[in-house]
# Entry
Amino acid sequence: MKQNFEHVKASGVSPFRVPTFGAVFFAILLAMLAEAMAGSYIALLAVQVIGMSPLELGAFLTIPAATGIAVTSFFGHLLDRQPVIWPLLTSLLSKCIGFSLCAWLTETWMLVVNAGILLGLGAASFSILFAVAKGRLDEFGGSTISRGMAILRLVSSLSWTVGPALGAVLVSQTGFPGVFLGAASLAGLSLAIVFFTRMRAVVNAEERVKLTSEVFYRAAPAAVALSAFHTAMFMGSNAMAIVVAKELGTEQDVGFLFSLCAGLEVVVMAAFVLWPKLSDRQELLLAGFALFAAYFVMALAWPTLASLYLGQIPRAAGIGLISIVGMAFMQDLLPGRAGIASALFGNTISVGFLLSGLGTGLWANAFGYWSLFALCAALCGLGAMILVVGRRRAA
# Structure
């Protein structure tokens, strides 16, 4: 019997046969759809409906990211010590209420407080769901882990492909309140799945690595490199949207470019589902940084709308590679610490969002929006260099 189990671990089983995985799959799908719908229109809500100033908008967008970093770190550490699920329920409930309030609040300070507390708490759900899934997948081992995590990353990207389009339909029919109430409903359905399926986390105490200074020293280069990547990703998105809408095309082109990239990301991630061992090839991280940098260089060398459309191919490939291999790499650095590993990866996204929000305006004001492409290419190069140095140091 033991030999059969070891054979299953080596060969792998379908992730959907793993307890809780199916529930996590649908919970992530709904939670990320909610994020995509609301996230696509939250800045427009602040500026067009509420009339926030640039400074107020900055606070509205960055405070929840800062709160999210602190909450995600705390919940991740807690999840590795105790198999509790209340942090996930709290996060999803906060997301649901926070999006609902965005449909009704009209005062700037109220929206900022709502974002800082409820949306900040809601930001932790992404990392917690991945941590719960990773803990369950670890019990089966083999290719089940790689395939399962790739499926979850794929469905997350698929949500961002579909979510903005759903938001566009709702905003055209019901206005901004409809978008945020729709997002709140999706978050509520995700909460219901977690609650009624009695989802439970798993603590892998036997495999859990001690959080020594040596462990953090080994994980730090990956965290810094991924933060540089996500800063380039968000900053590059801001730059692309602005130069396309103002100089090269229309607002519709902006939407098409984002949807095209998200769709191509799904194709790239599907390769990891079909060939799960690809997730273990850490050299693909460097390939992801190179492809992402190539997109920015291409835009600078050939600054046309056609170039940006073609550039979505290396852009999507870079995002897809780093999203899957980067999370797997972080989890390998922290075995038995699915909560902290997922939180650390999720926090690199939040750090990237924070730095991009702070840096976009300052850099563009000094050097122009096109110069952001050069800065983003440099950040990709910096991230790759940090990874190389970190790997050599670890060896």
